[in-house]
Amino acid sequence: MAKILWIDDEIDLLRPQCIILENEGYEVTTAQSGIDGIDIVRENSFDAILLDENMPGMNGLETLEKIKEISPDTPVVMVTKSEEENIMEQAIGRKIANYLVKPVSKMQLKACLKQIIGKQSLVSETSQSKYQQEFGSLSFEIGQCNTFSDWANVYQKLVRWEIELEKVRTMDDILLLQKKEANEGFAKFISKNYLKWMTDRQDAPLMSNRILHDRILPIIESGKKVAMIVIDNCRLDQWETLRSLLSPDFNISTELYCAILPTATQYARNAIFSGLMPSEIEKYYPEYWTHSEDEASQNQYERELVNTFFERYKKTQYKRAYYKVNTSESGENLIKKWPNYRQNDLNALVFNFVDMLSHARTDVNVVSQLSETDAAYRSITRSWFEHSALSKLIRILHDEKITIVITTDHGTIKATNPQRIIGDREINTNLRFKTGKNMTYDEKKVFEIRNPSDALLPQGKLTSCYIFAKGQDFFVYPNNYSDYVRRFTDTFQHGGISMEEMIIPLAILQPKA
Questions:
Q1: What is the pTM of this model?
Q2: Which has the closest alpha carbon to 325: 312, 340, 336?
Q3: Top-confidence residue, 136 or 255
Q4: SS3 474
Q5: How does pLDDT run across 229-251, given as a tens digit for each residue?
Q6: How far is CA 273 from CA 96, 98, 267, 310, 446, in A?
């Protein structure tokens, strides 16, 4: 049954039309103001929205703008008492699906909704049919994956299907089962090959510690200025959402690379900016490595680590700067200060919104409700980007013909399966990986590294080891087990082994003329 929301301050007078729609098989929800309608859209999904243009308080155009922020893909039909050219131009500019002029006849209403929802239904049915046809070949590909490139190709296909099918609710369970099957195979692949990559880097895929040397430095040496933008904790599906917004203005080439373990900010992002693995940072620059659990202190030396990279490779002639955006104010300050940065050969810029969203989803109930599904998580990321300082900055970079490299340090996965672990107080707090001594756990459920130096990880305590959760597992202590399971189940976490965390995008954007 198709769901319709009708927002009109005179909705009581439109009751006959609502009854007609209900008799035609539509489920109709009504709202008497733009504010009420926006609140309803936040809590529900609809196949179409009928919106009165002329309402007191928040008018139709203002309401339309808010609706598109919350649910950009929901078709909106503007209902107006006049066809004033400027009003309709503004409405069309905000991407309405159609418009109707009052008084709305029964035939007009039915034809309009049939055209919109019928088209959506046809697209959904076609997508569903295509995925069902490809399901078998994807399962075969999953079973045949032997290299990181194979897994990257499979994951990319799954992500594209996930985005295309996000409104086909009947396919959710099938796609989730196929992703679970793929993640099980990927975890076995990583467990078998990760330590080999540490000793034989010729066979290793592109990893976090090679980004600056293999991808950024060659662009700078070719004479181009580079803005390297690291969006913390940004998965491939979130990047695909942002890419669709940027593609009209940029030629974009995207490759997928492998985040190092642990897929946590302290390890992966420090590896990106230093060009070194974690144990190498600790060995050569111990003053820039901390064993503190305080997240703010774990990445406080990123600027210094970037400088060590250029010093090690004797490339100090290139001007460079580092800037981290944690708040909207710091983002606006970057825009204001940009004239001081534009002459640099490299500007390394970190944007932390997506990571903060992930943490807020765990701790703040309203954020958890707004990003309950992967589709909602993508939608919030898109809405943030459209109104962010990052979007403004990218427009500036486009006009100045600066090459943009957008990447991330790791992705994130929704944790659903608790795994018991026992350990002392010195074990770290991350839910997807643990390091310490005297830990008790199910060895069959984890990827275990008994000798951290084998994975180029800091040794810490002499008897310390690292363990990593696989798939959607997360670690929970027996004490207050039920409380922790209730709190962290269905939250987005990172640090472990999954395609979502380890197979991550690196995109190079060249401005179009």
A1: 0.77
A2: 336
A3: 255
A4: strand
A5: 999 999 999 999 999 999 999 99
A6: 44, 49, 10, 10, 29
pLDDT, tens digit, 9 for 90 and up, residues 193-213: 999 999 987 889 999 999 999
Q: CA-CA distances (angstroms) from residue 123 to 117, 168, 376, 493?
A: 10, 10, 20, 33
Residue 318: C-alpha distances to residues 156, 228, 249, 313, 417 (Å): 35, 14, 28, 11, 48
Q: Which residue has the tokens 């029964």?
A: 106
Are 40 and 70 spatial neighbours (Cβ–Cβ below 8 Å)?
A: no
> Which token pair is 445?
């459920």
Backbone angles phi, psi at 45, to 5 degrees: -110, 145
Count CA atoms closer than 13 A to 25's CA, side-chain side. 6
Residue 320, class by beta-carbon neighbours within 10 Å (0-12 exposed, 13-18 middle, 19+ buried)? buried
pLDDT digits (tens, 9 = 90+) for 95-139: 677 878 888 888 888 888 877 776 555 455 556 667 777 888 899
Distance between CA atoms of residues 288 and 304, nearest Å: 8
> In angstroms, rounded to a whole number, what is the distance separating the alpha carbons of residues 234 and 352?
9
309: which 2 tokens? 């990279």
Q: How far apart are CA 377 and CA 357, in angstroms?
A: 9
